[in-house]
Amino acid sequence: MKITSTSCICPVLVCLCFVQRCYGTAHHSSIKGTRNQTKHIEGETEVHHRPKRGWVWNQFFVLEEHMGPDPQYVGKLHSNSDKGDGSVKYILTGEGAGTIFIIDDTTGDIHSTKSLDREQKTHYVLHAQAIDRRTNKPLEPESEFIIKVQDINDNAPKFTDGPYIVTVPEMSDMGTSVLQVTATDADDPTYGNSARVVYSILQGQPYFSVDPKTGVIRTALHNMDREAREHYSVVIQAKDMAGQVGGLSGSTTVNITLTDVNDNPPRFPQKHYQLYVPESAQVGSAVGKIKANDADTGSNADMTYSIVNGDGIGIFSISTDKETREGILSLKKVK
C-alpha cells in the first residue's frame, strides 16, 4: 500500500521511561512512536509499514528502601492523542497498582508510595491503558510493562556454614590448600558491586593466607611444626563493594589443627640405666623396664625395642609393651 505525505498518522501511546541509579539523579527519557518512512530508489517510493499500533514502552526502575517524605517518582505514561485538555484518562492495573503504585489519571505520572525491598520482590508486572474520558473507549490496546526494584547495598555478606573445623598435615609445603570458604550476598549480583565479595584474613597471619577472589585458605609458612604449635584460630572477612571503603562485611572463624606426621625419633630421657639382677633370678624373669619418649602422636609414636650392642647381648632380651610403650628387659639365660 502506498501513502502520500499528507497521510494521517494514527496516534501512538508512548511510555516515558524513568531510570534511577543508586544515589544518582533521576532522568526522564521519551521513547517516540515510529512514523512511516519513505525511501526513493531509482524514482520509486518504497513504503516501510510501521508495526501494529500500541504502547511503546521500556522498563521502569524504582529505588529500593526509599525512605523519603514524598512518594517516589517512577515514570510517566503518555499518549500521542493526549492534547493536554484532560480528555485522556490513564489507568494502571496489575501487581501493586493502587496500593504500592499510584497513577495520576490525567498526567500519567506514576509514583511509588511504599518502601520496597528487592530481596523480597525484584519486579512488578503492571498494565497500562489510555481511554477517552468522555466515552470510556480505549484509545490504544492495553499493554504490559515492568517496574524493576533497583538494588542498593543493604545486605552484608554471610558465611552460612561457619565456624569451620579443619585439619592440615604439619610440615606441609607453603601454599597447601586448607579449605575454601564462601560468603553469600543477597544484593543484586547483576548490578554494580553490591554483591561483589572480596575475602581477607583478619587473624591467622603469618601462618595462613586467603585468596581474595576465591576464598581458598592456604598455608603461608614452611615447616609448620605440630610439636611447636598445634591449633590455630583463623578469622576470615568477606566484604562487598569489591572491598571498597563503605562496603558491608561479615566474618567467620576457621579452627585449624595440624595433624601429626612421623618426624620425630624416639628418645631416651637418660643415657645410662642401672639395673640389678638377683643371682636366683630364673630365665625369663623381668629385670626392669625402660621407656623412650616420642614427640609424635598416635601410630607415629609406636615403637619397638631391641638390644643392638653390649656385653649382655646374649644374656638378656627385650620386648615391647604395646600399651605402655615400655621396653621390658628379661633374663635370657643364666651366666
TrEMBL record:
Q: Where in the cell is it found?
A: Cell membrane
Q: Which biological processes are named by the entry's GO terms? A: adherens junction organization; calcium-dependent cell-cell adhesion via plasma membrane cell adhesion molecules; cell migration; cell morphogenesis; cell-cell adhesion mediated by cadherin; cell-cell junction assembly; homophilic cell adhesion via plasma membrane adhesion molecules
For whether the record's keyword set contains DNA repair, the answer is: no
Q: Does the keyword Glycoprotein apply?
A: yes
| Gene Ontology CC: one annotated term | catenin complex
Classification via Pfam families = Cadherin
Query: CDD domains annotated for this entry?
Result: Cadherin_repeat (cd11304)
Swiss-Prot/TrEMBL keywords: Calcium, Cell adhesion, Cell membrane, Glycoprotein, Membrane, Metal-binding, Repeat, Signal, Transmembrane, Transmembrane helix
Membrane topology label: Single-pass type I membrane protein
Kindly indicate where the leader peptide sits in this chain.
1-24
List the InterPro entries hit by this protein, alphabetically: Cadherin, Cadherin-like_dom, Cadherin-like_sf, Cadherin_CS
Give one GO term, molecular function aspect. cadherin binding
Chief location of this protein within or outside the cell: membrane
Domain annotation Cadherin: ranges:
79-159, 160-268, 269-333
* Designated name of the protein: Cadherin 18
Q: From which source organism is this entry? A: Rousettus aegyptiacus (Egyptian fruit bat)
Q: What is the lineage of its organism?
A: Eukaryota, Metazoa, Chordata, Craniata, Vertebrata
